Amino acid sequence: MAQTDSAYTRKNAFGVLAAYSNDSSHIFVGTAEQRKLLNLGVSYTRSLIAGHVVNFQFDAELLPVALESDPLTRSVNVQTSPTHSTSIVDGLPPMDTCSPQINKYNYTLDGTTYTGVDTFTCHGRQWTIGESTSPFGMQFNFTPRRRLQPLVETHGGFMYSTHAIPIGGAGSFNFIAEAGVGFEYFRSHRQSIRVEYRYHHISDADTSFFNPGIDNGLFQVAWVFGR
Question: Do 194 and 142 sit in the same domain of this protein?
Fold first, then answer.
């Protein structure tokens, strides 16, 4: 049974949360670049062991709005033979990395030789609608007798999107892993504001043809209430 003798410890709490990340990079294992995340959802927290030093809690999250944004691709073709011409095509599917990809070509078709250079870069953006849940979470609040409590947390879960992310050939069903730090400020014994910075990883765990993975630094804010 959970103990609730600390001044700012609730047995059960519910939260409304919002989270955003403006960029992705190779933090640990993800390689997809310039991906954005926007999450809106709710959380449930239950205190398991509450002492004078730490409040150990189970925490689960449900995100009915889990948006992921990928940069689209621009192709610039500069043909040098048989004629000089330049063509630009926008809106091509996303690439793993946004570093320019250069493809030199030289081929013969029906007796005519074609030479030139195709350059692929990131240009434009598309948002993908998804839903996410993290039913496996732990949160540790320290100094639970104080209004301002530092915390560490970790979560694991799943995400489903309307099409493959972050590139074609990857999965539309992905796994999520998170670990973060932050603080929780108690406005009263029942209400608090939780602010966190999380390492957020999305991966299909090699269940599809491609698995570049996405690493984001995610900022999250939640309004929490309970008793």
Answer: yes
